[in-house]
Each structure stands twice: as structure tokens, then as C-alpha cells.
Specification:
Blueprint lengths: L2 E2 L5 H11 L3 E2 L2 E2 L11 H4 L3 E2 L2 H7 L4 H11 L1
Antiparallel strand pairs: 1-4, 2-3
Length: 74
């Protein structure tokens, strides 16, 4: 499931990923780690929230952005 975001929200989402996601290290996703580095899929996305962990565990920390994104998707 991908939750749509507006183009102007992409920078805010990416900043939140970099500053607050426990699974993002050096722009790579630790959840996808299988011995090789894999880029964070959320940092690659320009049209939506595609990482369930980010959506449920990180995004709610920014109440304003979370509210805007969830309202847009309904």
C-alpha cells in the first residue's frame, strides 16, 4: 500500500527519514539488509509513503505532517 504525498511534502518526509528513522543508516535500509547495502526505498520515493515502518512508527512523530498526509490519502 502506498500513501500519496504532495510534491512539497517530499523534502519534509525525507528529512524525517534521515533524522528519525531507526532503520535508515547512511541512506540505506537496515530492514532490507541481507549482507549487501540497499537504499532506503522511502528516500527514493517522490510520490508516496511506501515504507510501512516509516508510516506507522516514524511519521506519527510529526503530528502536523502526519495529519496532512493522512487527510490527503482519504
Amino acid at each position: 500500500m502506498i500513501v500519496s504525498i504532495k510534491p512539497e511534502q517530499v523534502k519534509q518526509v525525507n528529512a524525517l527519514v534521515r533524522s528519525s528513522c531507526a532503520n535508515c543508516r547512511d541512506e540505506c535500509c537496515l530492514l532490507l539488509d541481507d549482507g549487501d547495502s540497499h537504499p532506503c526505498i522511502q528516500l527514493l520515493s517522490v510520490s508516496g509513503i511506501c515504507c510501512r515502518y516509516f508510516l506507522t512508527a516514524v511519521l506519527p512523530a510529526d503530528e502536523k505532517l502526519y495529519s496532512e498526509i493522512i487527510q490527503n490519502d482519504q
